[in-house]
Design brief:
alpha/beta; five-stranded parallel β-sheet; 12 helices
């Protein structure tokens, strides 16, 4: 079961490169509001796409997919970045269904983790763009950071995530308003893209597709402003520490963690905190790999390590109740459309 990132990035067939399709039955699914799922957060009014769109809903969607595909046994759960967050949250909720966790670019979705990437020196940027009040991604990508921050009104830079949420909260009524919205969304997505790879040229002014940018930025901010909805009740809490507080529920699950030493989207300290917490809770089957890479799964050493992990995992014996599809190998791509999986 593959959890895509973002949140809001949608599934992409490139994710299949990690898996031997002669061995694995791979499920890629588009989380609510993005990819081929509908309603889409790219609509002028994204209210429908963001309603009933929380981590708890996504966890329930995974359970619904298991039921839809007649998956009765355990499964490997694979996710990177936000996908690692969702994979961990799912495993905490349903540990008995998880054979192995494979996590890349761990994101714990605490306030400090979000601020490290999004806040930086934004509050001080107007009088001094090179101010260094706190550690953050902005220190490593000053040009890309400037392109991003300048899209946020100075009065809203004291809390960048809140400022973005304010921009995305109002449906555009005119073409000029929609253009402003798309530019803000594109700046948000371009900022992450600029910081994701070691070899990326931050002076590049390439812009993501407008519809894709709106989808990703709206859903991402929807989750970040609410602390990823990481709460036992699925409620909003930017100050949550949900994953580390509940890590004991993962005590018996083998966990493979791959994290780039130079990851500036999700700092290495997040993987370090997770691994120490898992081992402190008594999990003796944690494999931790630090690669000479940034955040992207496409970086060579990270790509190779993930492939190796998947090639070397012990095989799962299918339960006798497995469905015909579940007994076959291959790929299944699913989308959520108005309450129905297709």
């Amino acid at each position: 079961m593959v959890m895509h990132g973002g949140p809001g990035a949608g599934s992409h067939s490139s994710a299949t490169r990690f898996f031997d399709l002669e061995r694995y039955r791979v499920i890629l699914f588009d989380q609510r509001g993005c990819g081929k799922s509908s309603p889409s957060a790219a609509e002028d009014d994204a209210t429908a796409a963001l309603t009933d769109n929380t981590t708890r809903h996504l966890i329930d969607d995974v359970s619904a997919l298991r039921h839809e595909l007649n998956i009765d046994g355990k499964m490997h759960v694979f996710g990177g970045s936000w996908g690692s967050t969702l994979a961990l949250a799912y495993a905490i909720a349903h540990p008995a269904t998880v054979q192995t966790l494979i996590l890349r670019g761990v994101f714990l979705c605490r306030r400090a983790d979000v601020d490290y990437f999004f806040q930086g020196n934004a509050a001080e940027f107007a009088p001094d763009p090179l101010a260094m009040p706190v550690p953050g991604t902005y220190l490593d990508f000053p040009t890309a950071w400037r392109h991003f921050v300048e899209r946020i009104p100075p009065k809203d830079r004291g809390d960048i995530v809140m400022g973005l949420a304010k921009i995305f909260a109002v449906p555009p009524r005119t073409e000029a308003e929609r253009e402003r919205l798309v530019k803000a969304a594109s700046a948000c997505v371009a900022w992450e893209g600029s910081a994701s790879r070691l070899n990326h040229d931050e002076n590049s002014h390439g812009q993501p597709n407008g519809k894709y940018a709106l989808t990703v930025a709206r859903i991402m901010v929807h989750y970040m402003i609410n602390g990823g909805f990481l709460d036992a009740k699925g409620e909003a809490s930017r100050d949550n520490n949900y994953i580390l507080d509940n890590v004991a529920r993962l005590r018996d699950i083998p966990v493979n963690v791959v994290h780039g030493r130079h990851d500036r989207v999700c700092h290495l300290y997040q993987a370090e905190a997770l691994v120490r917490a898992l081992r402190g809770a008594g999990n003796s089957r944690v494999n931790y790999f630090i690669t000479t890479a940034g955040h992207s799964s496409f970086e060579p050493e990270t790509d190779t390590r993930l492939r190796t992990i998947m090639n070397e995992l012990p095989r799962i014996t299918p339960p006798e109740t497995a469905s015909l599809w579940d007994l076959k190998r291959g790929l299944r791509i699913c989308a959520f459309r108005s309450g129905v999986w297709t």
